[in-house]
Amino acid sequence: LKPTTVKDALHSESAQDTILVHGWVRTRRDAKTFSFLELNDGSCLKNLQVIAPATLANYTDVQHLTTGASVTVRGKLVPSQGQGQKWEVTAEDVTVIGTADATYPLQKKGHTPEFLREIAHLRPRSNLFGAVFRTRSRLAFAIHRFFQERGFVYVHTPIITGSDCEGAGELFRVTTHDLANPPKREDGLIDDAKDFFARRTYLTVSGQLEAEAFACALGKVYTFGPTFRAENSNTSRHANEFWMIEPEVAFCDLQGNMDLAEEFVKALIREVRTNCAEDLELFAKFVDKELLARLDFVLERPFQRVSYTEAIELLKKSGKQFEYPVEYGTNLQSEHERYLTEVVFKCPTTVYNYPKEIKPFYMRLNDDDKTVTAMDVLVPGIGEIVGGSQREERLDVLEANMRRHGVDPKDYGWYLDLRRYGTVPHAGFGLGFERMLMFVTGVPNIRDVIPFARTPGNAAF
Ligand code: 4AD
Ligand code: MG
Q1: Which residues contact 250 (CB under 8 A, 6 or more apart)?
Q2: pLDDT at residue 273 is higher than 90
Q3: Reported confidence tier of residue 429, pLDDT bands at 50, 70, 90
Q4: How far is the CA of 42 from the centre of ligand 1 (A)?
């Protein structure tokens, strides 16, 4: 007999003589002539109700089952007497696979997110985290589908790299040196030539530069993988290890890039809205009452588009006292981003054309010689979820940009080759996977949408 999932059992078209289902006990209640189990196997939010009659040979074992124990149940799928579900199982056999004692930390009562973070290995067994991680999986699938349906090629860019794409110095260094006793050069510095790769290497902050090489060959590409930032910021939207999706398109300009980002974000919302309906209802009930209305509202209308210069003027005119003052030439802080989307425009907002000084070397310089073709998509509740740009395709301008940013063109010879041989206008962006997941679930902390979060001081699992 092939086992079925709780989800398939609950969606069965008809009663069945025998089904086999594995799972974990959520609760047990005893009546006079039977024991009543709620079984969950993670396939869906709902539990399968199991009636285990007192006539079972191992009924005493069944009566000792506690929350968290694992069992295999064989029995009849019959119409449910109780409310809320169509089917339940009358057990003919309950095999206890693994017991769980009273120390099992996930008891029926609600737990705080902080406590659940301390049991990251068990929290996927809770309703909320089961729902979060099923949605995460579905969102990942939707991302591949979006690009594959549009003819994009999936590129695996390296995790270990020698380049610092964002130039922000937030790199995790990769080394096999014994750091207590590293090989020293004559000048006393660590000798990178003696390290594993015979040079200094890092965990990648972005696959963009490599994706550009592939876009300038295959036309439309995307990456989807882990990226790393050694930023020491303890906020609800920063992690040191997060996943990023980076489309890169040849023969595309800033306008096309903004259109793609908007279409992409909306398509992902639509996909989750249709295919994670049950989990989304849980989020709407327990995490964020406004969630469904907000997602539907976002789908209905175009994103607001506004230049950085206009955005600064609007923020200044607002008269609002921000913690960080609003100043042309400085980066928008999260409070500014949220104010734009939550108060000024009340919808997702794409800010473009930022001052060249505050953006990385690869962005295309505008004719005004002051701004670059950067674009950030900001959403209510979070702020930035997408960052991207048209890339500088002119060799001489790119080299000048690099020098201005203190980047030595000699270190990026391969990247400059893309401008030497058949250069083309091209553009792309990065969507923060976890931030998108926060947006579609309403979960307010990035630590709660990653299976095992990496944040400063936290790599316990
Ligand atoms: O704006 P960022 O730094 O852009 C890039 O890395 C570009 N190379 C992307 C490209 O053009 N191909 O990062 C892109 C997105 C941000 O908008 C944000 O959503 C997310 O990545 N992100 C983070 N998410 C979680 N934790 C962090 N520390 C993040 N840093 C960036
Ligand atoms: Mg950014």
Answers
A1: 215, 216, 219, 220, 424, 425, 426
A2: yes
A3: very high
A4: 31
User: Is residue 419 in a domain?
Assistant: yes
Same domain for 37 and 159: no
Render pLDDT for 389-425 as a digit per residue (tens, 0 to 9).
999 999 999 999 999 999 999 999 999 999 999 999 9
Structural domain includes residue 312: yes
Q: Which residue type does 296 have? A: D
**Residues at CB less than 6 angstroms from ligand 1:** 165-166, 206, 208, 229, 231, 238-239, 242, 244, 246, 384-389, 428-430, 432, 434-435, 446
Q: Tell me the residue range of the domain where 62 lies.
A: 6-98
> Which residues, listed in sequence order, are joined to residue 147 by a DSSP beta bridge?
none
Instruction: Examine the domain organization and report whether 210 and 66 are in the same domain.
Output: no
Q: Is residue 118 part of a domain?
A: no
Same domain, 163 and 23: no
* Non-local CB neighbours of 144 within 8 Å, separated by 6+ positions: 154, 224
198 within a domain of the structure (yes/no): no
Mutate to test the pocket of ligand 1, among 170, 171, 242 (most ligand atoms within 8 A of CB): 242
Q: Do 326 and 288 reside in the same domain of the chain?
A: yes
Assigned token pair, 87 = 């089917």
- CB contact set of 11 (below 8 Å; sequence gap of 6+): none
Whether 108 shows a pLDDT value over 80: the answer reads no
Q: What ipTM was assigned to the predicted interfaces of this complex? A: 0.99
Please tell me the total count of domains within the chain.
2
pLDDT value at residue 347 = 95
